[in-house]
Protein: JmjC domain-containing protein
Organism: Salpingoeca rosetta
Amino acid sequence: MAKKEQGRNVDRTTHDGGSDGGGSPRWVGVRGAVVFAVMAVLVGMSAWPLVVELMEGKQQGRGQTAAPPAAPTTTRPSHAAHDTTQDCAGHLARALAAAQKSMQHRAVLELNQCIELEPVEPNTLFQIGEVFVMLGEYDEGLDWISRATALDPGNYHFLTRLIDVANKAGEPEAAVQAAERGLETLLHLDSDTWHRTLLQTADAPPEDMQWLLDESAEVLLLLRSLVRLYEQVEWMPAANAAHKILSKLFPHDTHAQQRFADFSAGIGLIGQSINVSLASLQAEYERQYPRHDARQPVVDHALVLLGASLDAIAINIARKLLLVEDAQVLQLMSDVCGHDVTDLLSAHQIPLSRAIHFMESCIAKQDVIGTLIKLGAKTTGVSTDFLFTPLHSAAAISANAVIDTLVQANADISATNTLHQTPFHAAIIRGQEEGGKKDLLNMSAANRAGPTDSSEQCADMVCLHRWAGFEWLLDNDEDCTRPEPPYTIHKLPHRPSSTTVGGGWKIKRSVSRQPATCDFDVVDARVFTQEDFLLDFLSLQRPLLVKGALNSHHWDRVRASRWTRENFASEFRDTVFQRTIIPYASAFGMEANETSVLSFLEYMEDHYAASIKNIEDIELPAYIFASLPTQSPSTKTGGEDGEDDGGNGDDNDEDATASASGSDGIHRLAFRDFQIPECIGPHVSEIETRTKQFYLGPAGSGAPMHVHSGSWNALVYGRKRWFLLPPPLAIYSKQHPHDFIDEQLPALRARGAVLECIQESGDVVFVPEMWAHAVLNEAESIGFASEFAWGGNAFSLPAPDDVDDGSDGDDDGEEEETHGR
C-alpha cells in the first residue's frame, strides 16, 4: 500500500533533540529524498514509498480526515499477524520515549516503521495520533485519531481527545462534528438527527428532558463541551438551545446559569439574560431558605439586578462584537435589538460607548424594564449592598434611555448610596457628561445634603478627575485648589542602571536607565492607609499607583525566596500553563499552546539574549496570563477566597520546596502565594474577589486595551508600562500593545486622552471599573492580578427578616445572602 494512504510521514529536524521550527519537511526534492532513503535503509525501514511521496510533494489537506486504512491484502498466519502488532507496539513505545525527550527525528523514524506495518487496531491508530500531537503535528494527529474514532465511535476517550486535537489543529468545525456524532452514538440516535433533537429538547419543559440525566455522565460532559464549541464557531441558535438544556437540567449550577446569562447578553438577548439570572437567584434562595417565599424578594429586586448587570452586559456585548466573524450573526444581533452593528464586522476594536448604545436599544426593543415592572419589580426602596440604585448604575454609563424609563417609573432621583452619592455623582465619577447633564439628576444632586454640601462634593469630583465638559459646575478656577494629602509622591525615584529588576529577573540596561513617570496619582505605601484607598480612590474611581506596596511579611517571603527566578524555576518547573500572544488569546481565535514553566523560562532566556544583541523576533513575544482557582477544596469551610487571611490560603508551608507539578503548582500559587495587598484592605473596602490571575512574560509581552470591573495588579518583579483611557473613551480591543503604541497612541496623546504610568517591582496599580487599559512589559515580569466586585455591581439578596444566621433555622451553616451576577 502506498504511504500516502497510511498517513503523511514528517521529519522536521536534522538531528535528535531539535526542530527547525518550519511548517514543512526540511528534506524535500530528489536530493533530500535520496538522503532520507539512505538513512532509512540503515535503520531497516522500507524507504521507496517515502521517496516517491517526497518527490511528488504530496500532502494531505489541513484538517481532512482520511478513511481508516484498509487491511493488508496479503494473508499471513495468525502468529505472523500477532508478531506485526507486537512490532508496531515496540516502535510506538520507542517513538513515544523519543518524543518525550524532544528527539523528534528519532520519533518520526520509529513512527514510520510502525506505519509501514499497516496497523488497523483502533488503540494503535490512536497512539500513533498521540505521538504526532506530542511532536506538534496536529494535522497528522487529527487524521490518525479520527481513524481510531471511526473504528470505535463509542469510545469516549477517543471522542474527547479528537475534539481537543481538532481545536489545536485549528479545526473547530471538525471538533463540533466529532462531538455531535459522539452524542448520536451515545444516545443511539440516527445519523444526522442531533440538531433536530437539540432544538426540540431545548423547548421542552424541564420534566420532559430528565431522560438526559438518565444517560451516562459522558453525554452531559459532551453536551457541555458542545456549548463552548457552538459559541466558538458562531452557531448561535445551536449554542442557545444547548445553553437552555443545561440551564433547565441544572438550575442550581450557578456556573452554568452564569454562562447562559452572559451568552444571552452578549448577543443582545437582554431579557433572556435577566430571566436566567432571576431564575438562578430564585433557585439559590429556595435552596438556602426552603421555608420562605422565594419569588417575591427576587421580583422586588429585579431592576436592581438589571442595574448591577449593566456594566457586565456592555462588556459582554463589546467582546462579542469584537469576536464575531460571521456577518449573519451581526445581522441577527441587529434584528434582535433594532440597532445596526453590521458595520463592525472584522473590527479590531469596539468603542465601549457603541456597545452601551446597542445595549440600550436591546433593552428598549425587548421592553425589559417595562416587563419587570409589570411583574412587580420595585423602582424605589431597593438597592445593591452599597445602596446603589438602578438609576446610579444607568447614570454611571450614560445609558440615557434607561435613565428616562426609570425616572418615568418614579425612580428616586435623589437616592444616595453608602457614600452619600446621588446618581448625578455616579455620572461625574465616570466622566459621563451626557448622562451627568440630565436636568433632573442635576437638580437632585444640587439639593441633596451629604457629608458635605452636595454641590461642593460635585466640584471636588470634577477637580479630582479633571474631567472636561463639567466646567459648568465650577464657580472659578480656584475651586480646584485643594491641599494635597501627605501620602502623595510628586516624583518617582530614579533607579540606578542595572540588568535586573530584582530576584534574578532581567531587564535591558538601556531600559533601566529610562525614568519612571506616572500621569495619575502616586502614593507612598508607608503612609497610605486602607481608609485612604476607600475614600479617596475606590469610592471616587480614581486610578492609583502605590509605591512599595508589597511590604508585608507575606510578600517579603514571596519575593525574597519563593519567587526569585532560580527558586521559582525549581519549584514550579513542571507546572503547565497556556502560552499565548495576548491574555486569553484562544477566546479571540488566536493560537494557544501548553508549556511548562521551565520551558517558558528557557524561552524567556533566549528572548532576553536576542534582545541585548538587538535581534528582533518577527513573532510577538509569548505571555502566560492564567486564571487561578478562587476556592480551595481544603479551605471551603473558611471565608470565600481565603477571606479570613487576606485572600491566600496556607502561608505557613515553609518547606514547600519540592517540584510542584500539575494542579499542585497551581494550588500553591492560588492559595499559598496569592494575597490581596494590604493597601487594598478588603476588610475596610469590602471588595469581593472575583478572579485570581497569575502572569509571567518577557519584555515586549503584554495585554491589549480592554475593560472589566475594578482590579488591582501586584508586580512582584518587573517593569510594566500602563496605558489608561477613562470610561467615556474606553475601547475593547484584540490589538497587541505594540500595534496600539504605533497606530493609536500618538493621536491619543495629542488629545490628552490617555494616562500613562510605569509600574516597578513591588508596586501595585489600581484600575477602576470600566477604565480601559493596556499593558506592555518593559522587563521580565511576574506577579498577580485580581478583579473584584464593589459598589454598583456588588449585588446580593438579603436574608429573610426572621433569619439571623442565614441557615433558615437549619444546621447546615449556609451563607446569609444569595449572590447575583
